[in-house]
Specification:
With 332 residues, the chain is an alpha+beta fold. It has a single domain, classed as Alpha-Beta Plaits. The chain contains 12 helices and 14 strands. Bound molecules: iron/sulfur cluster (2 copies).
């Protein structure tokens, strides 16, 4: 356990799916050898298989305090990089928009890139993901080399690259599949929550670059931090797959879920736009209560009353979105 805990809140109502966060992270941390397939930050489409494909069914985490066996995803579940053939797609109206000499079966943003999915419902939303810097990290528990540690001073989970021997037990144990094996370096690697930036009082690159301004960063126990307010005071942000037992410290404001409209926008139907089971599978049963709380705040704002939580979620200024105490040791 750490004394304090950095956390991030992401408001899913504001994500544009632009992947600026993904690129910011990739340019900063994972453009080295053996890191091509690594997306410490990825943004996937829901419904969808995610990255790697089917990660949420890959086991890992804890059940009754015991590690749950998990899989090491094969490379096919990460997919291969491919180029689009724009001329074919845009000007000839042909099916798959990829180069003719490659036949990719999967990729990091598959459903959106190739428009292939079995959606019965006409909706989707984006789900940005990083390592959750869990309170009880199953990756740490599973490592036979004690190479993974959780920093006491801020709860960030890191891998000691000198101690790691690349056994990949952490990859198996992480229920979010947010650890990647670097075959060139022979070690596991993962999101470091931009700790060298935080040490200088600068927000994580993914948060700072996000044009949707949907990421909030701070210490969970700091009553003045936006993450404390959203998670503990207003209670509008929930962790992903809480049943995995690791205590994630990345939280999500779920999408608004108004009733569906009839064909051609006519009439309001009884069913919600997103079936509750999809949101409950991701964020657990409390998601319904949170969504209703958000709806109530929206009605309040629409009737001219002030909604503190919606004001906070707008998060126009950096000072509102981030509260990062600078430390002396910039190297952490
Ligand atoms: S998300 Fe996975 S890699 Fe990150 S701390 Fe939790 S168990 Fe470890
Ligand atoms: S940069 Fe922000 S808006 Fe764009 S995909 Fe990432 S989280 Fe979503």
């Amino acid at each position: 356990m750490s004394k304090t805990q950095y956390a991030m809140v992401m408001d899913l109502n504001k994500c544009l799916g632009c992947q600026t966060c993904t690129v910011a992270c990739k340019k900063l941390w994972t453009d080295g050898d053996g890191m091509g397939y690594m997306y410490w930050n990825n943004v996937e489409t829901r419904p969808g298989k995610g990255y790697p494909a089917g990660w949420s069914d890959g086991g890992g985490g804890f059940r009754k305090g015991q590690l749950v066996p998990g899989e090491i995803p094969p490379l096919e579940k990460y997919g291969v990089p491919f180029e689009y053939d724009y001329s074919q797609r845009l000007f000839e109206g042909k099916g798959k928009p990829v180069m003719p000499h490659v036949d990719p079966q999967y990729g990091p943003n598959w459903e959106e890139d190739v428009g292939e999915t079995d959606r019965e419902e006409n909706f989707y939303f984006y789900l940005p993901r990083i390592c959750n810097h869990c309170t009880h990290p199953s990756c740490l528990e599973a490592c036979p080399r004690n190479a993974i540690y959780k920093r006491e001073e801020d709860g960030i989970v890191l891998i000691d690259q000198e101690r790691c021997r690349g056994y990949r037990q952490c990859v198996r144990a992480c229920p979010y599949k947010k650890i990647y094996m670097n075959e060139v370096a022979g070690v596991s690697q993962k999101c470091i929550f931009c700790y060298p930036r935080l040490a200088k009082g600068t927000p994580n690159a993914c948060a700072k670059q996000c044009p949707g301004r949907l990421r909030f960063v701070g210490l969970l126990g700091d009553p003045e931090s936006p993450v404390h307010k959203l998670v503990r005071v207003y209670r509008v942000a929930l962790p992903l797959l809480p049943g995995k037992g690791t205590g994630p410290n990345v939280y999500y404001v779920p999408p608004f879920n108004p009733p569906r409209r009839g064909n051609y926008g006519k009439g309001i139907l009884e069913d919600p736009r997103i079936p509750w089971r999809i949101l409950e599978d991701l964020f657990g049963p409390p998601v319904k209560e949170v969504a209703l709380r958000l709806e109530a705040e929206l009605s309040k704002a629409q009737s001219g009353e002030k909604s503190e939580v919606l004001q906070l979620l707008i998060g126009r200024d950096d000072e509102v979105r981030y509260r990062i105490p600078a430390t002396k040791d910039a190297a952490g």
